[in-house]
Write a structure and sequence with these properties.
Helix content is about 60%, strand content about 0%. By secondary structure, it is mainly alpha-helical. The chain has one domain. Helix 4 packs across helix 5. It is globular. It starts with a helix and ends in a 12-residue tail after the last helix.
Length: about 90
Amino acid sequence: MNDQVSEFDFMPVLGGEHKGEISIKVVLVEGKYKALKYYIEKKLFKKSTKIDTKTMDSMFFLHTYHYAIMAHDDRRLRKVLGIKKRFVWINQI
């Protein structure tokens, strides 16, 4: 799922004020959440399915965490996303 959604996130915006920028840099969290929910409910499975809020929140967290791990490991990705400082992992509960 993450790989399929990533294809859309890193495509350039075709028009508007953010033309030419990759979509993940300009989309708001609410927009990303709704787009991920739409993709999971309508496109991921052969049959359209409804997902409850708790499950969707968990999937959104995992997807976001996947991007954080990718950015932590890949300097080029951090540059593309405009992250100037390296992530610091905090091992506190």
